[in-house]
């Protein structure tokens, strides 16, 4: 079974002055153990697709199934907390929390006690190559690459098979971009995560297992191997 399946999805933005069909009958599925790159020009629909996969809204038509269940049948707040971990270009770490506290945050929201959450946070830091000595630092004390590793660790703290990444290397130099891509690839290939990356970066697309090219709200090709 696919971790995530997009089935005949269309999405329409409606304003007072115009109607925009951002997605047009899109169908694609995503499996565990692979890295997928979703690419396309601005306005191609890739960001809208990501927002629907992240549970920020429901499709106008069609459905998105996570582990066989439609998001239309789910509590979207719970889905966002437990099923769809999102990694952002701007990191979105909470500035007044330490690195460890940022990583602990989703675990504590789910009811885990603080001592156990901190122990797991330190383990997650190791998995993304962040020294344990950084645990009590604040995000502003870290480089961009280090902040993105902390953001990945926070996503892993949600304990979901699905990792969604929105331009995760957009604010990083080429060396840090390669490091982040290596971490995401390792998570997919060695730990079985399904990693879906929306990106403009050809290097990220080339390093992915599959590339989904979007154009004018549609998938421009069958999912291809990179």
What's the topology here?
Layout: E1 4-14, E2 19-30, E3 35-39, H1 46-53, E4 61-66, E5 69-70, H2 76-82, E6 84-88, H3 99-109, H4 114-127, H5 144-156, E7 162-166, H6 174-191, E8 194-198, H7 202-207, E9 210-215, E10 218-219, E11 224-225
Parallel strand pairs: 3-8, 3-9, 6-7, 7-8
Antiparallel strand pairs: 1-2, 1-4, 4-5, 9-10, 9-11
Number of helices: 7
Q: What is the number of strand segments?
A: 11
Structural class: alpha/beta
Which radius of gyration do the C-alpha atoms yield?
17 Å
What is the distance, rounded to the nearest whole angstrom, between the alpha carbons of the first and last residues?
A: 22 Å
Helix content: 25-40%
Strand content: 25-35%
How would you describe the shape? globular
Q: Which blocks of ≥5 consecutive residues have pLDDT under 50? A: none
- Helix and strand element order: EEEHEEHEHHHEHEHEEE
Largest pleated sheet: 7 strands, mixed
Mean pLDDT: 93
Protein model, in words:
It is a single chain. The strands form 2 sheets. Strands 3, 6, 7, 8, 9, 10 and 11 form a 7-stranded mixed β-sheet that branches. A 4-stranded antiparallel β-sheet has the order 2-1-4-5, covered by helices on one side. Helix 3 packs across helix 4, helix 3 packs parallel to helix 5 and helix 4 packs across helix 5. The longest helix has 18 residues. By secondary structure, it is an alpha/beta fold. A hairpin with a 2-residue loop joins strand 4 and strand 5. The protein is built from 7 helices and 11 strands. It starts with a strand and ends with a strand.
């Amino acid at each position: 079974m696919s971790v995530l399946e997009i089935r005949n999805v269309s999405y329409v933005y409606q304003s007072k002055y115009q109607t925009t069909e951002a997605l047009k009958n899109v169908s694609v599925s995503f499996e565990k153990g692979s890295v997928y790159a979703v690419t396309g020009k601005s306005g191609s629909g890739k960001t809208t697709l990501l927002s629907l996969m992240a549970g920020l809204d429901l499709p106008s038509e069609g459905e998105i199934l996570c582990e066989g269940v439609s998001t239309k049948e789910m509590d979207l707040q719970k889905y966002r907390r437990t099923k769809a971990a999102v990694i952002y270009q701007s990191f979105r770490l909470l500035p007044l929390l330490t690195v460890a506290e940022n990583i602990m945050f989703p675990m504590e929201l789910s009811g885990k006690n603080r001592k156990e959450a901190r122990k797991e946070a330190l383990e997650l830091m190791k998995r993304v190559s962040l020294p344990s000595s950084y645990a009590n630092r604040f995000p502003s004390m870290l480089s961009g690459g280090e902040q993105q590793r902390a953001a990945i660790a926070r996503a892993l703290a949600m304990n979901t098979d699905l990792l969604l990444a929105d331009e995760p290397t957009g604010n990083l130099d080429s060396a840090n971009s390669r490091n982040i891509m290596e971490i995401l690839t390792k998570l997919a290939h060695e730990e079985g995560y399904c990693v879906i990356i929306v990106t403009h970066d050809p290097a990220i697309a080339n390093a992915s297992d599959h590339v989904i090219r979007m154009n004018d709200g549609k998938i421009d090709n069958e999912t291809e191997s990179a």
